[in-house]
Amino acid sequence: MRYLTFTIALLTSATVALAQGTEPLAPIISGPEEIMVGRTLVLDASSSKGLGEDTEYRWYVEGISQSISRTVEVVYTPETVDAIVVRLAIRTTIDGEVHDSETQRMITVYERKIALVADSSVSREKLQIHQQTAASEGVYLRIVQPIGGLTLPVSTEEALFTTISEQSNALPGSQTIILWTDGITGLQALMRVAEADATRLAGIESQNIVVITDSSLNTLARTARGPFSVLKPDRIVITRKEAINPLISAIDTETFLTDIEQRDIDFIVVDESTTVTRPWNLLSSLVNFMLTHGVSSQIVILLLTLPIIAMILAFLKQVIGVTTFGLYTPSVVALSFLSLGWTLGLAFLLFILITSYATRALLRRWRLLYIPKVAIMLTVVSITLLLLLGIGASLDITFGRDTIFILLIMSTLSESFLAVKTEEGLWSAVIGIGETILAALICVFIVSWAALQSVLLAYPEIILLTILADIGLGRWTGLRLVEYFRFREVFSHLQEE
Predict the structure, then answer these.
(1) Do residues 104 and 11 touch, judged by C-beta distance below 8 A?
(2) pLDDT tens digit sequence for 183-206
């Protein structure tokens, strides 16, 4: 069994230039880029451009001297596993002149195919190594991964959904679909594609889905029950990345499961026998319902982490003594940092604050009323955000549909900053904004722990425990830790007496 790794090549040559304003002759081959050995391949040239009268088509397959078809389409059945080159030559007459042009396409003929869907966190080098390993085993490994630079956490699922939709022809015919993504993001994107157009994932009922994860298998298996009920594959196997090579070399799923069990690689199988929903787990049922009806897992995670963020902020304020702009503002900033990533979120926030302060300083000489002044500042902030989004796009940063709303919510911090600056002075405002950002970053570093997010998604009832913690904080009557430092001289005098 042999297999050649290849790329699609499109070589077009025109022998005669057409008059100015006339579309040049451009042959276009439409049809699949890959096919299983022994299956019928149908290619079509009807999308070719610049066709005139008396058009002649000639189709050639590498290794066959004579043309195999002289019509607008060709039907061919490859009998060997290989990479075949199909060449199309077109001759047409335009305004009495004869024009010739040709193009060619390389088609993969495989016996066994596996599709691997990965997010941008998986390096291309790792994927290419697995692709080479698959080629040596005679397996065609089709890789589907978003192309571009940085993808924001909240936009990961959107990027995967777009990529899978555009390359949906990569999944049909696959014996197994590997999802190498963060949590259930890959399952969510795959489920959205199926709900948008079921024909794109035709045949997934007979396929197996293998989810690669570094987090807890049990928690991920619990959250995978919802996508399983929608996608309805043969089974979902949740395992570690060490299982990829055994999967490539295994003939079927049963051999694969036996192999990784012998190698002591952890795995959990999700099938119809494991997807029973317990009605008394109200929040779990609600989360599964949301996940299976198009709500992004990232949005659900943000909602589930909000009570924990509020609890952490309450602890920082009541026990530690950190001064922030209330509780709502640092909570919103923390959620914004979770959505954008704390580095990019902090950069956007600083730009917003600097722009707001500079705008207020310029408007001071005009003696405007407060509300119109805030409206002007909001306009300037929106223009600044538009420029920042343009800069991010030029750096290949993928922004989701909800990014602009996150940034606008974040801009509310500038109004709090300016209000404190007016009432208490610049230094107090700087201290307040600094402690607010610090508190938000502490929350982000805690709740962005992947294991915590997986547990929250699998067992959302945990957030009810934050109510008990908040009640305990509400009964706190001791001094805050910073007050021990602030009043240390008083305490020292009391001890001397």
Answers:
(1) yes
(2) 778 888 888 787 777 676 666 777
